[in-house]
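Entry 14. Ran structure prediction on the chain below.
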Amino acid sequence: MIYFKFEFSTAVDESAPSGTVKEPEFTKWENFMKAQKAGAPAGVRNFAQTTHIWPWMPTEKAFVSNARNGIVISIAFAFVVLLIATRNLLQSVLSIFAVVEVVISVVAVMHWAGMQLGVSESIAIVILIGFSVDYVVHFSHAYVHSEHTTRYNKMRQSYREMGVSILSGCLTTFGCGAFLFGGTFVFFQTFALIITVTVGISIVVAVFTFGALCHSVGPEGGFCAVDTCCRKKRLESD
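Output, structure tokens:
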């Protein structure tokens, strides 16, 4: 068997995302191959391109799809957990609003930093929800279970009881993520940025945005409480 091998160089980085970078480059090379086959003699038309980059594209696209699905499923699951923990529909909605704000802010920072949704970013971003909901759920739980009746006193007690613990957890997590910036692998650099940015934005949103929402429209007097609604239905049925 006699064959010829031609090597060409491409400017595509292996860590670049498939959907926006690799797939268009792959399509361009495929069109080039089709054009060469159309004009080649009959005996030399059986040729194809091969590289170690293209076979990895379906896996990368699956990572991206799973990351998006993971965000949606995690937010929905976090809402259910918040509803069980707080037993208040309005409080759960306010908490999830704060979590979504954190997620959108972190993704915006990733885009601002020039990061693409590749393999390492897809793996790291799934963990984003856990850090986003952590501080909010502690403040929310303390707010709902406060013995005070007014929003101001409820949120004040929530800050007083959970503020030190949440701030300590924020500092330790931020410090652990900051050390990853010294890593040489791309995944460590990406994970370090996502952790530090997520923790920083989460504490700001939990203390200021979520606190302001609870202070302004937070539930009081059993408003939107799930157990209150169930108790009313039982009384009406009796």
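Residues 229-238 have pLDDT under 50 and may be disordered. Will compare against last week's run tomorrow.
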